[in-house]
Design brief:
- The complex is a heterodimer of chains A (about 200) and B (about 350).
- Chain A is an alpha/beta fold and about 200 residues long.
- Chain A has 7 helices and 9 strands; from the N terminus they run βαβαββαβαβαβαβαβ.
- In chain A, the strands form 2 sheets. Chain A has a 5-stranded parallel beta sheet. Chain A has a 4-stranded mixed beta sheet with strand order 1-2-4-3, covered by helices on one side.
- Chain A is elongated.
- Chain B has about 350 residues and is α+β, with helices and mostly antiparallel strands.
- The radius of gyration of chain B is 19 Å and the shape is globular.
- In chain B, strand 1 and strand 2 form a beta hairpin.
- Classes of the chains: A alpha/beta (about 200), B alpha+beta (about 350).
- The interface between A and B is large, with 42 and 40 residues.
């Protein structure tokens, strides 16, 4: 295993050396980096976490050793586990939710189906770039909604959750929003017009 | 001077940041009693750029200060940058600088006195360019040196532009490129080319004067300048003060040439990490936002650009005029204002 000793060096030198080292090894190979600066330890760990890389830290006195594994091709993107999504041009899709019920018929059934749909959405291999919620659909993004946590997970994974502001005002839900950015019909129309693939559950 | 004194030799190699972390600062400040006065139009509550006090119906005073250790080798240039940076807070409120006091920490035992004079001359030249005057100052023996100014400006109380007026639907405009922290760090670590570094210095010396004048003419909703807390930190403060959220397209953000490459090589200053920690969960990054761009929105800026919120119908025209009034202005629409949403900032 390659070892990078940065003792005595101040930020950002250790990070420069770590990036160099990572670029010089293959995916799956490990590298260990030694620092005696608490600030550098914190910054290196933050950097690795942002890359989705592991960081095994051992500390002896004031000297810290971090062991990490190179996990992607160039260490530049924040979420390597989502790499496949970045270049999947042509596969982008938007989910447009216009009601808190799925399908027509028994509303109780519609509610169960919609909850199940949103909960399953986050498990898809190809996640939607955006989920737009309008009319009664915005109710799904309220704090008390059973799918609020699923929508939050989607947002964490980088899907844009867009809520119709007019709809939120209409239903008087301004203080109950749990997830998503409040936007307007201009943005919703532009997005729908620009997206080839829209799913209406 | 026979041989030019390099100011950067006075500061610790690769010193991370001279600014206290924003989070620590808010912790301490929240326990201090606030001054209450009906004429105090802007106080620390909205994290604005300066205090503003109304002295009569036509005039309010803008009062601000800023100082820091050397960020470049040349003393004259350091003076220019420090002065532009201090004056910027007046511009960010829509005001006009009136007069300034020099604040200097300098050890005559360790640095030739000519350097002292050069720094002051650099500062003076920028204050004059701003149409203001230096009326004195104060010096303390200290090393490494620090320089800056306390500045008083004026503004009509009704024309004051604060952090607090951004309205949903507004467009967000940034007038200077991001990346001064990156370029200073890149230069220190031998990772920036000279031409790019020069470009960064030139931008830091640029007054926000014409930008502010044009913005005032357009009656924009809110304005601040981007400095130590980075684009994300200052945008966050504006969004909080305005009770709104912002959507910002990272690929639209103007960047200094070379800044991205410096971050790509890992030369990310400690201040960037501090700023990232400060915005934390309040800033959301959509999938696919490039890591280096994510860090650049947290890059601490010295004498950065103005950040404005303006009615969507005026945005394109404002950008055109900002550029027409000043060819160096990099005015770009980088996002829009959303109604108050669960997160303050959405970077895409």
């Amino acid at each position: 295993m390659k070892t990078v000793d940065t003792q005595g060096l101040k930020c950002p030198q250790p990070l420069i050396m770590l990036k160099e080292a990572l670029q010089g090894i293959s995916i799956g190979e490990k590298v260990s980096i030694i620092t005696d600066s608490d600030t550098s330890l914190k910054n290196l760990t933050t950097f690795l976490r942002d890359q989705g890389a592991e960081a095994e830290i051992t500390t002896a006195g004031s000297v810290h050793t971090i062991v990490t594994t190179r996990n992607d091709s160039n260490m530049t993107n924040a979420e390597p586990q989502l790499y496949c999504e970045i270049d999947r041009s042509g596969n982008d899709y938007v989910v447009c939710i216009k009601s808190d019920l799925m399908g027509e018929g028994d509303p109780d059934l519609g509610k169960v189906l919609m909850e199940s749909f949103v909960n399953n959405l986050k498990l898809q291999e190809h996640l939607p770039t955006q989920v737009m919620l309008y009319n009664a659909g915005v109710k799904l993004a309220m704090k008390q909604s059973p799918v609020c946590s699923s929508l939050t997970e989607l947002e964490e994974l980088g899907t844009r959750i867009v809520l119709c502001g007019t709809c939120i005002d209409h239903y008087g839900l301004q203080y109950d929003i749990g997830v998503g950015m409040i936007s307007n019909m201009v943005v919703i129309t532009e997005t729908l017009a620009a997206t080839g693939h829209v799913i209406y559950p | 001077m026979d041989e030019r004194f390099d100011l950067l030799t006075t500061i610790e190699y690769g010193g991370c940041s001279s600014k206290l972390p924003a989070g620590l600062l808010s912790e301490v400040l929240k326990d201090l009693p606030l001054s209450v006065d009906p004429n105090l139009l802007v106080d620390v509550n909205t994290h604005d750029d300066a205090g503003v006090y109304r002295i009569n119906r036509e005039t309010a005073l803008i009062f601000t200060t800023d100082f820091f250790p050397p960020i470049c080798s040349d003393p004259f240039e350091f003076g220019e940058i420090a002065a532009s940076n201090a004056l910027s807070d007046v511009y960010a409120m829509g005001g006009i600088p009136l007069m300034a006091l020099n604040l200097m920490m300098f050890s005559h035992n360790r640095i030739p006195m000519e350097v002292f004079g050069e720094i002051l001359r650099g500062g003076n030249s920028k204050v004059r360019e701003a149409g203001a005057i230096i009326v004195g100052g104060h010096t303390i023996d200290d090393h490494p040196p620090k320089y800056g100014l306390a500045v008083i400006g004026t503004v009509h109380p009704d024309k004051l532009i604060t952090n607090a007026g951004a309205a949903p639907g507004d467009r967000l405009i940034l007038t200077k490129s991001i990346g001064t922290g990156a370029m200073v760090s890149g230069q220190k670590n031998g990772l920036a080319n000279n031409e790019d570094y020069r470009r960064a210095l030139d931008q830091m010396k640029m007054l926000n004067r014409t930008g502010a004048e044009t913005a005032v003419k357009f009656g924009i909703s809110a304005m601040t300048d981007i400095t130590g807390f980075g684009l994300a930190g200052h945008a966050l403060k504006m969004a909080e003060a305005s009770h709104v959220s912002f959507r910002i397209r990272t690929e639209s953000i103007p960047l200094l040439p070379g800044a991205y490459q410096v971050f790509e090589k890992g030369s990310i200053p400690g201040a960037t990490f501090k700023n990232q920690e400060f915005t934390g969960d309040r800033a959301h990054f959509t999938r696919g936002v490039d890591y280096n761009l994510k860090m650049l929105v947290h890059d601490a800026q010295t004498s950065g650009g103005l950040f404005m919120s303006v009615h969507p119908d005026l945005a394109d025209q404002l950008v055109r005029e900002l550029k027409a009034d000043d060819p160096q202005n990099r005015a770009t629409i980088i996002g829009e204002v959303l109604s108050e949403s669960p997160r303050r900032l959405y970077f895409e």
